[in-house]
Amino acid sequence: MISLRDLEPGDEEQLYRWRQDPLVDRWMSDAAVPDRGAHQRWFVDLLAGADGRGWMILRDGAPAGLMTLTGLASHHRRASWNWFIGDPASRGRGVGRAAQVLGLDKAFCEMGLDKVWAEVMAHNDNALKMMTAAGFVREGYLRDHALKSGERRDVVLLGILAPDWSGRRERARGDLVQARLIAA
Fold first, then answer.
1. Are 164 and 137 in contact (CB under 8 A)?
2. How confident is the model at residue 31 (pLDDT cuts 50, 70, 90)?
3. Mean pLDDT value across residues 24-51
4. What are 122-139's pLDDT values in tens digits?
5. What ranges do the domains of the chain cover?
6. Closest by Cα among 75, 124, 130, 137 to 103
7. Contact 145, 120 (CB under 8 A)
8. Which of 8, 33, 39, 63 is 20 to 30 Å apart from 21, CA to CA?
């Protein structure tokens, strides 16, 4: 079963190790994996919750990845969405698909947001397909927007509105419950 839990202080080390993994880092829009100090400051800020919230994605109770919503201090009732599956054994098993559904429920049903948006590297076909399947719509394309490993990369802007999620929620959750990926 896939679930989300609030980040805890002890999660910082695991997240830093995952960020070191080239299979995780290659899709992040950061210029490089942050040094330990920068990572710790980011984590402390996320735990404080002033402008963001973070959740550990769990697979059968064990850490599998990270999901965050940032930009929450804005009056716009929207947030930037980021997530990754860090545990190699959890990739390709529906964990990301299930985590997205649980995260969208948190964003719209629990937090009352009106919009969730994301920047995705244009060549990250798996993420683009998964997010589109969850209801995200392409809202823009930014050429040469991110500098990654010394190369300019294009970025796709995606967004989903609360009414979009409301119309998809029941079926998305039902499919995952039937597949025994999330609890009813």
1. yes
2. low
3. 79
4. 999 999 999 999 999 999
5. 2-178
6. 130
7. no
8. 8
- On whether the CB atoms of residues 176 and 182 are closer than 8 A, the answer is yes
Determine whether 40 is exposed, middle or buried from the number of CB atoms within 10 Å of its CB (0-12, 13-18, 19+): middle
- Alpha-carbon separation of residue 92 from 98, 104, 144, 146, 182 (angstroms): 11, 20, 29, 26, 16
Q: What is the CATH number of domain 2-178?
A: 3.40.630.30
Long-range contacts of residues 87-90, Cβ cutoff 8 Å, at least 24 apart? 87/18, 87/59, 87/62, 87/63, 88/21, 88/23, 90/59, 90/64, 90/65
Predicted TM-score (pTM) of the model is 0.92
State how far the Cα of 180 lies from the Cα of 10, in Å rounded to an integer: 28
